[in-house]
Amino acid sequence: MKHGKKYNAAAAKYDLSKKYDVASACKMVQDMKFANFDETVEAHIVLRLEKNATVRDTLVFPNQFKGEKKVLVFCKGDKVKEALDAGAAFAGEEYIEKVKGGWLDFDVAVATPDMMKDVGRLGMVLGRKGLMPNPKTGTVTPNVAQAVAELKKGRTEFRADKTGIVHIAVGKCSMDTDKLVANVNTLLSEVSKKKPAGAAAGFVKSVSVSSSMGPGVWVDYKEGE
Question: Per residue in 74-100, pLDDT tens?
C-alpha cells in the first residue's frame, strides 16, 4: 500500500519494526500525528479464537474522549420517568413507531426485557446501524437508570470481527499521554478477561496502536500484565 509524504515522514521517526511498552507506543503515536485535526487513537488487538468464536463485552474507559451520547430507552410505565431522570434523551414505547418510520436521532438504544418483543421487530432498522439492544452488552435490562448512567459516562462495546481482531477507539491525540495509556491498559485488561476457559497461552496474539491517519506501533504485551 502506497502512503503519502506526510505519512512516510512520520513513519521515519521511529523503528516501527520493533515492539514498545504501552506508554512508549502511545507517545510515539501522538508524536507521529500529522493531520490538521485531532486524530483518534485506535487499538487493534489480534486474538487467537476458535472457528466461529467471538469476544464481545463492554467497558468504561477511565478517561473519556467522546461527546455525550444521546440515549433512547424503549420502556413503559414508571420506567419512562426513571430513564429520563437518569439522563436519557428519549424514553417511552412510542419511539418504536418513530424508529420504524426512519427516525434515528440517538447514539445508543436501551430496552427493558418486556419491550423486546416489539423492539425485535426493528431488527432491519436497528441491526443495520448496530443499535439493536442486546443483553450481552447490558442494553437489555430492567435497571434502566444504571444502564443510562453508565452509557453517559462512556460505556463502550468492544467486539472481535470475523477475522478475530478487536478494533476500537481508545482516545485522542490531544489527550495527556498518561490518560491515553490508562485507556489502553484498561482495554487490554478487559479483553484478556474474555479469554475462553481452557484456552492455551497466547490468546492475545498481537497489539498495535495508531492514530486515524498515522502509522501503527506494535505493543509489547504479554497476557497477565
Answer: 999 999 999 999 999 999 999 999 999
3-state secondary structure of 24: helix
Are 58 and 158 in contact by the 8 Å Cβ rule? The answer is: yes
What H or E segment, with its residue span, contains residue 74? strand 71-74
Between strands 56-60 and 155-159, the pairing is antiparallel
Q: Per the structure block, which three cell numbers stand in for 108?
A: 445508543
Q: Exposed, middle or buried, 5 (CB in 10 Å: 0-12/13-18/19+)?
A: exposed
Give the rounded distance of the alpha carbon of 20 from its chain centre: 23
DSSP 8-state symbol, 196: P
Q: Which tens digits make up the pLDDT trace of 109-155?
A: 999 999 999 999 999 899 888 899 999 888 999 999 999 998 888 88
E strands, the chain, are 19-20, 40-47, 56-60, 71-74, 90-91, 108-111, 155-159, 165-172, 204-211, 217-219
- The pTM of this model reads 0.74
Name residues whose C-beta falls within 8 Å of residue 21's C-beta, 6 or more positions apart in sequence. 219, 220
Neighbouring C-beta atoms of residue 67, cutoff 10 Å: 8
Q: What is the pLDDT of residues 40-62, one digit of tens each?
A: 999 999 998 888 788 888 898 99
58: cell is 463492554
